[in-house]
Design a protein that fits this description.
The complex is a heterodimer. Chain A is α/β, with parallel strands linked by helices. In chain A, 37% of the residues lie in helices and 20% in strands. Chain A has two domains: 182 residues, Thiamin diphosphate (ThDP)-binding fold, Pyr/PP domains (Rossmann fold); 130 residues, Rossmann fold (3-Layer(aba) Sandwich), CATH 3.40.50. In chain A, the strands form three sheets. A seven-stranded mixed sheet of chain A has the order 3-2-4-5-7-6-12, sandwiched between helices. In chain A, helix 2 links the parallel strand 2 and strand 3. Chain B is an alpha+beta fold. In chain B, the strands form six sheets. A six-stranded mixed sheet of chain B has the order 11-20-19-18-14-17. In chain B, strands 1-8-6-3 form a four-stranded antiparallel sheet, with no helix packed on it. In chain B, strand 19 and strand 20 form a beta hairpin. The chains are: A alpha/beta, B alpha+beta. Chains A and B meet through loops of A and helix 2 and helix 3 of B. Chain A: One of its GO terms (molecular function) is magnesium ion binding. Chain A: InterPro entries: THDP-binding, Transketo_C/PFOR_II, Transketolase-like_Pyr-bd, Transketolase_C.
Chain lengths: 332, 448
Amino acid sequence: MSVITYRQALRDTLRAEMLRDEDVFLIGEEIGVFEGSYKITEGLLKEFGERRVRDTPIAEEGFVGTAIGAAMLGLRPVVEVMTINFSLLAIDQIVNHAAKVYGMFGGQTSVPMVIRTPGGGGQQLGATHSQNIELFYSFIPGLKVLAPSGPADAAAMLRAAIRDNDPVLLLENLGLYNSKGEVPEDDEPVAEIGRAAVSREGSDITLIGYSRMASVATQVAQSLAEEDISVEVIDLRSLRPLDRETIVESVCKTGSAVIAEDDWLTYGIGAEIAATIQEGAFDFLDAPVRRVAMAEVPLPYAKPLESAALPSAESVTTAVKETLNAVGRRVG
Amino acid sequence: MTDIHMPRLSDTMEEGVISSWVKKVGDKVEPGDILVEIETDKAVMEHEAYDEGYLVKQSVSEGDTVPIGAVIGVLGDSPDAEVAEESDATAAPAGEATGETPASQPAAGEATDGRAPGREAEESAPASSGEPAPATPPSPDGGPRPRTSPLARRLAREYGLDITTIQGSGPKGRVVRADIEAAAKEQRERPAPEAEAEHAPAERAPVSESTTGGTHDEVRGSEEVTVSNIRKVIARRLLEAKQTVPHFYLRRTIEAEALRAFRAQVNEQLESTGNKVSFNDLIVKACATALRLHPEVNASWVDDRLLVHRRINVGVAVAVPEGLVVPVLHDADKTPLSEIATKSRDLAERARDGKLKPPDMSGGTFSVSNLGMYGMDSFSAVINPPEAAILAVGAMRQEPVVRDGEVVARNTINLELSVDHRAVDGAVGAAFLKELAEILEEPMRIIL
C-alpha cells in the first residue's frame, strides 16, 4: 500500500496496463507532448513512444471513431476526452457505434474501448465545461459507466475497464484528482464492474452517492457519527450496470435513504435510484426518499453562485437530518 | 375542521401539559404560527400550526395534562365555525381506541403468535364500555386515509396493531416506525382493561360488574381472578383455532436409542464450548430438515388461499407464568444445531422473564410443543394459526418393543402431529411425519 493521489493512481494504472498488454494504447487531445490537461498521461509519451500515445487534432468525433475502429480490430484503446462536456461532440460515435456494434453485427466483434473523461463543477470553468452528463451514457444499453470516488477504486476500475471487452466510460472528477488514499502497489485488484460498495456501515439511514458525492457522503457520515447518527454510505461505483441489490438491501435495513448526486435533479441518476428503492424496499421505507442535487441552472461562473448551485456536505447533512426527523429521530 | 393533537415532542414523552395558549379562540392561524406552549417531561416547547384557519376551540385548558394524540384544539375555516361533537379533549389517545375499525382488519396470515396484547385485546373490549370514540376516527366511507409510512404499515401488520388508531409523529401526522414501536410497547406494558377498572374511580366499578356478570358465585364459592391480556389472547386464539381449523391427528412412536447416542456425541464435541443440545433442539432441527423435504406442510391456509412459505421458522411452545408463548426460531433449516441450542435457550429464558419482543414471536411456520418433561406419554396439540401443523412430543420412556421376533426394551418417544386439513391432506401429513421419524431414528440426517 502507498498513499497516492487519484491522478497518480490513474497514471500508474495506465502505465502498468500498457506494460502488461501491448495492445493497450492511448489516444486523445494533448495527452502526449503536453502530458494531458490534467497530467494523467505524464511521462507516458516519453516511455512508450508515439505509436502508443497518440495526440490528436481537436476532433472528438474523429478520434473516438478511430478508437472504436481500432478496438473492433483487436486493440485496446484508452481514449481521453478532456472533459465529459466535449464527449457531446462524439456522442453519435459513442451511442450509435461503440454501444451498438456488438449487438448489431451479431457479436462478430466487440469494442474493448475505454473512454476516460472527467466531469464535475466547482472549478470555475463556466457552464459549458462544468457539467455532469454521465446520465446520457448510463442510459444506453451496450455501454458500461464506472464512477470511482477514490484513488484505490480509480486504479481498480480503470484496470477492469481496460480488461473488459465492452466499451466502458470511466467517469473521473476534476474535484477528485488531488484527493489521496491508499492504493495497493501491485496490479490487483481488478474491480468487479456492476458492484456498489457499502463504504461505511450504519443503521439509521442510507446515504447514496457516486464519484465526488460518494466522497462527500463519507465525510457527512463521519461528522454525523459524532452526533450519534449512524449513516450507511453506499458508493454506487458503477452507474451501468447498476447494483440494485446493494441499494435495496441497505434501505431494507435502515428504512430511509438520501441520494446525493452531482447532476441535475430532474431525470437525474438519483431518480433511477429512488425508483429502485421504491420497487425493492417499499415495505421497508419509513420516509420518502430524498435527493440532493445541483440547482436546475447552467452552472454559474462566479464562485459564490457556483458553490451555492452545487450540492455540498451541508446540503446533504440537512437532508439526512430532515429525513431522520421525519422518522421520529429528533436530531438538530 | 382540523383537530390539533397533543404532539409527541420527545421520545420519552407520554403526555403533555398545556402550558399556555398563544392563540386565542377566533384568532387567525397560519402554518408555522406558534399555537400553544406545551410542557413535556423534558421542557416547555412551542407547538406550531401545520394548517391554516381559525382557532375555534381550545379543548384543553391551560395547566391541564393530556396524553399524546388527544385533541387539544380545533381549527376551523372561519372564526365562528361550529365545532363537531366528536372533537373532544376526552377522546382516547393513540393506541387506546376501542371502536370497531372495519377498514383495517389485519390479514389472518399476518396474525401474531402467542403474542401479548395486540389488536386482539382491543377487539375484546366491549364496544359499550363507555369509552369515547377515537380522536380521529378512521373513515370507513372513504374519508382521508391516515398518513402512514410503508414500513409503519408493515410493522403494524406484524405487531397486529390497527394503524388507524395510532397517532403519527412524522410530518403532517405521518405514522412512522417509531410510533408503531411505541404503540406496541404501550400495548405490552398496559395492564388489562379489567385490571385498570379495579383501580379506576368508584363510578367505573358497575361497568366491571355488569360485563363480567358478577364477580362472586356463592354456590360454587368462586372468585374472579384478574386475567392478563396475554391470557385473553391465548383464550381467543385457541378458541379460534379449534373452531375454525379442521384438525386431524397423526401418531407415530419413534425409537430413540440412536438419538440418545447422537446427542451424547454432539454434546461431547460441544463440551469445551459450554453449549449443550437438548432433545428438543434435535427435534426442532429435525422438523426443519423434514419441512425442507416436505415444503407443502410449511404452509398456511388463509382466506381461501394456500400460502407455501419459503422460510422455515419453527416456533417452540414455552410455558410462562401467564400462560404460554411461542417464540420462533427463524430459518431453523439454515441454522446450525449448536446455534439452535443457544438461540432456543435464550428465547426460553427471555420468555420466562417476559422479555420477548414481538419479532421473537412472529413469523412462525410450524410449531413444536413438548410436554415430555412433565411425563406425558403423548398428547394432541392445538394448531397455532396460521401455521398448518404442530408437533406434540411426549416423554422418552423405555418400552417393550419387538425386534426380530424378540421383545426388547427400547427408549421410545411418541410424536403426534396435529394438521390443518384445509392446507394439508392426510397422506401428505403422513409422509412428513414418516420422514421426521426416520430422521430422528437416523439422527445424522438432522444435520445433513
